[in-house]
Amino acid sequence: MVSDDHRSVIRMRGITIEFPGVKALQDVDFTLRAGEVHTLMGENGAGKSTLIKALTGVYRIDGGTIEVDGERRVFGGTADAQDAGVWTVYQEVNLCANLSVGENVMLGQEIRGAFGIDWRRTHAAARSHLEGLGLTIDPRSPLASHSLAVQQLVAISRAMVSDCKVLVLDEPTSSLDRGEVEQLFAVMRDLRDRGVAILFVTHFLDQVYEISDRLTVLRNGRLVGEFPAAELERTQLVALMLGRELDELESIDAAERIIDRDGAPVLRATGVGKRGSIEPVDLDVFDGEVVGIAGLLGSGRTELVRLLYGADRADAGEIEVHGDPVRIGRPRDAIGARIAFTSEDRREEGIVGDLTVAENIVLGIQARRGWLRKVSRSEQDEVVSEYISALGIRPADPNARVRNLSGGNQQKVVLARWLATAPELLILDEPTRGIDVGAKADIQRLVARLSAEGMSVLYISSELEEVLRLAQRIVVMRDRRKIGELTTTADTDVDDLVAIIAQGDAALPDTAARLKEDAA
Amino acid sequence: MKLKKILTHRLALPIGALVALVLLNTIARPSFLSITVRDGQLYGSIIDILRNSSPLMLVSLGMMIVIATRGIDLSVGALMAVSGAVSLTIIKASPRPDDLGVLAVAIIAGILTTLILGVWNGFLVAVLGIQPIIATLVLMLAGRGIALLITQGYITTINSVPYQFMAQGYVFGMPFAFLVSVAVIVLVALVERRTALGMLTEAVGINPTASRIAGVRSRGIIWGAYAASGLLAGMAGVLYSSNIMAADANAAGLNIEVDAILAVVLGGTLLTGGRFTIAGTVIGVYTIQTLTSTITFLGVPPAVTPVFKAAVIVIVCLAQSTRVRSWFRSRRRHRTQTPASGMGPGSDIEQTPALVGAAEGSAR
Predict the structure, then answer these.
(1) B212: which chain A residues are within 8 Å (Cβ-Cβ)?
(2) Of B7, B63, B196, B213, which is most buried, counting CB atoms within 10 Å of its CB?
(3) How close does chain A come to B201, measured CA to CA in Å?
(4) What 8-state DSSP symbol labels residue A100?
(5) Which residues partner with A86 through β-bridges?
(6) Are residue B223 and residue B364 in the same domain, yes or no?
(7) Do B129 and B206 belong to one domain?
(8) Are strands A425-429 and A37-41 parallel, antiparallel or unpaired?
(9) Is the model's pLDDT at B347 over the cut of 70?
(10) A482 Cβ contact partners less than 8 Å away, ≥ 6 residues apart
């Protein structure tokens, strides 16, 4: 399908984008050819959206060049990018829901007659554009009356009206059902054959292989490589996305500890799920056990733990804590059951940036006690200095504003907040993402020590080595379902996990056998 | 270094503004600072300012708590009208307007009414999730209607010596109204800072999602803030009506929400919520009150006063704007880095960021 004589529409060279304190993209090259579907792959924080935003003029680049059709361009805003023929259709459609389909398609390109806009001809033009994509809907119907899938196609039509050369589809399929995805793919293939360059982002591996001609993989803001889709196996792709962390971390081998699974589990979830988010899942966590959750982004791992904590409300299933049924509909319920949770989104859901380190640490205890019984000054000093030294928080200044700390130290502050409340189950969602190696090792060592002392931990990480190192049992999730569970042994290695994540458990007979042993 | 620390202190701006105003007044009218003692009671322009600022002080403290939760309460002026109307209607209906029991009932009824209305505001915002500006706009408009209903459309006037004492009487040589405002400042400081309420309020204002995940009862805290604002506005309304001995549903607390917001912001609490400072708000209130008095002293017709206040608002907003500050800073650096090179800021879109970065690097 793709041959070398396809001309490059977009050439991005050495793209670097910095945010305060982080390099979101470092020296990334990216080439998009006319008439191809090119998929951008990478975990959260890999830099996919940053690259897209650089290409569509949302972010100003700090280094590197962008060429469109061989001509160097500097995008000062999305309008510049659109002038150059680069259009984006986002996951959440960026159209005007209160206008009609035709008005949306022709927005800014209305056909004018002697008395202003000629609506009859404008709508007729809209109809022909829509039909060009195989969409037979009335252009006069309100946009809001159509499904999200149709709205996306309308957004694509709108891009085509403006003679778009490059179409960026940022996770368009994440809320579509199977049939709708097929319809979208048919349109994408049609556009590709007409010579449009399509940049596609999705987290669904099946879709990647169904539609892509080439793949570009990013990790931690750097380019991993560019591959023809036909030549890269799934397993390889997953391994590239997740990365193989060199074992700079000292060996932390909590994994082989023997866990007594006879009594009532600390947490037992039965059929916990939420429609449209995650299918019902069963899960046990026993005393002093670290249960890892492995899976790609979008596999449902975050959605699952958010339900267990009450950050989102489950619409199915039961939760038992120490054998007693509890209702968890909001975080306070979970906290009452001595469950703690650190979100993967540290900035939005973890730290309270403008408060000090000390205030952030006591916030958990204080919230439990209520506002009337203030944590006294001496008590606060004691707790705060204890955790600052135990977790090695830097700077060791209780009065520093948390937002000025590095990611790793912010994470430690959030951990300290929870540890101070003495939880029985700690749910950690990507606790080591985006932090430096030293802090990573600190946090992993902490988890190993806490669990050895009897705390139960649910541990999510994109870095499989981490999960393998810490967890005695690993739950594997894929496509918003739990697809398997394995007890780690000395010879479980990352390849086993990668294979299950990529192929499903059926692909790996010895794991399947191990699963049966577990069941027996 | 020490001077820089003083200049960057967060109360530097409000204190500076207040001192400047006092200086201006003293120059224009040397008697401004003089305080005379008659019958053991203090008189003078400063004392007037302290006394007259009491209603604004109460309202501003309530506004500050609401603003800290990322909210705003536009209804405070209307609530002042309501509490005055309730209290005076009860006193007028009583055959013994000088009886302290009657007054107590009247005052408590007035304040309780606005407390309930504050609870209503909080319900709209915290439970129903309506935007604060819209939710409190309801009572901003309806409140004066309620007050007019209570007074049946008239300006209710009363004669009651003890009621008048609240605004005009003296205790220990100081105006009673001033002492009330001091008592409330102390009370608010105790409740917010001696308990954990202040910190939890700030947490909710800074990051509502993280606070919820951390287990903070954000709904209760936001709800309470509006209730407190209603309560304090009610007290302010009673003080106001006692000053003029009348319940004027149309004039009581008119536009006071604007002054209160200005006082809070001038004091250094950001409208985006989060960190709040009681001391800053207190200074902000005195600054606003002094400004109002100054305008009168200078003989500016009252109808023109809004122009002066607007000018102050513009200056304060500019001084607090991070964009303006960083613009000034980068201009200073540009001037030291690129003398007469003709490379003004923004002369080349692509080069500006690099230039600024380089300037920052060498400045460190």
Answers:
(1) 330-331
(2) B63
(3) 10
(4) B
(5) A166
(6) no
(7) yes
(8) unpaired
(9) no
(10) A279, A281, A282, A283, A300, A304, A475, A476
Are the C-beta atoms of B320 and B280 separated by less than 8 Å?
Answer: no
What distance in Å separates residue A41's CA from the closest CA in chain B?
29
Identity of the amino acid at B347: S
- Given this model, what pLDDT does residue B293 score? 84
Q: What is the pLDDT of residue B84?
A: 95
B253 and B233 in contact (C-beta within 8 Å)?
Answer: yes
Find, among B75, B342, B92, the residue nearest to B233 by Cα: B75
Q: What is the pLDDT of residues B84-142, one digit of tens each?
A: 999 999 999 988 888 899 999 999 999 999 999 999 999 999 999 999 999 999 999 99
Tell me: the pLDDT tens digits for A441-458?
A: 788 889 998 998 999 999
Produce one character per residue of B127-148: b if its CB has 16 or more CB atoms within 10 Å, e if not.
eeebebeebbebbbeebbebbb
The answer to whether the CB of A426 falls within 8 A of the CB of A450 is yes
Burial class from Cβ neighbours inside 10 Å (0-12, 13-18, 19+) for residue B116 reads middle
Instruction: Mark whether B325 and B178 lie in a shared domain.
Output: no
B161 part of a folded domain = yes
Bridge partner list, B321: none
Confidence (pLDDT) at A246: 44
Does any domain span residue B309? Answer: yes
Does B197 contact A at CB distance below 8 Å?
Answer: yes
Domain end call among A242, A257, A290: A242
Is A358 inside any structural domain? Answer: no
Q: How far is B202 from chain A (nearest CA, A)?
A: 8
Claim to verify: residue B356 and residue B272 sit in the same structural domain: no
Residues of chain A below pLDDT 50: 1-5, 246-248, 507-520
Cβ-contact B209, B53 below 8 angstroms: no
Cβ(A200)–Cβ(A212) under 8 Å?
yes
Helix or strand holding residue A193 (H, E):
helix A178-193
Residue entry with tokens 């007054």 = B103
Could you give the number of structural domains in chain A? 2
Residue B16 CA to residue B4 CA, distance in Å, equals 14
Determine the structural domain holding residue B331 and report its residue range: 321-338+350-364
Q: Which residue has the tokens 């305008």?
A: B295
Structural tokens at position A188: 């994408």
Secondary structure class of B5 (helix, strand, coil): helix
- Does the predicted TM-score (pTM) go above 0.80? no
Same domain, A275 and A204: no
B213:A76 CB<8 A: no
Within a domain: A283 = yes
Burial of B84 per CB tally in 10 Å (0-12, 13-18, 19+): buried
Which residues on B lie below 8 Å from A417 (Cβ)? 214
A-chain CB neighbours of B200 within 8 Å are: 363, 366-367, 371
B357 and B235 in a common domain? no
- The pLDDT score that the predictor gives to residue B7 is 62
Phi, psi values for residue A309, rounded to 5°? -90, -15
Residue from the list A343, A355, A368 with its beta carbon closest to the beta carbon of B215: A368
Specify whether B186 is located in the same domain as B325: no
| Predicted pLDDT at A4 | 46
Q: Return the bridge partners of A71, or none.
A: A68
How near does any CA of chain A get to the CA of B65, in Å? 15
Asked if B208 and B326 sit in the same domain, the reply is no
CA pair distance B240, A364, nearest whole angstrom: 42
- Mean pLDDT confidence for B190-199: 95
Per-position DSSP letters for B153-186, written without gaps between them: TS-EE---HHHHHHHH-EETTEEHHHHHHHHHHH
Interface residue B207 vs chain A (CB under 8 A): yes
Q: What pLDDT, on a 0 to 100 scale, did the predictor assign at position A77?
A: 83
Q: Is B274 on the interface with A (CB under 8 A)?
A: yes
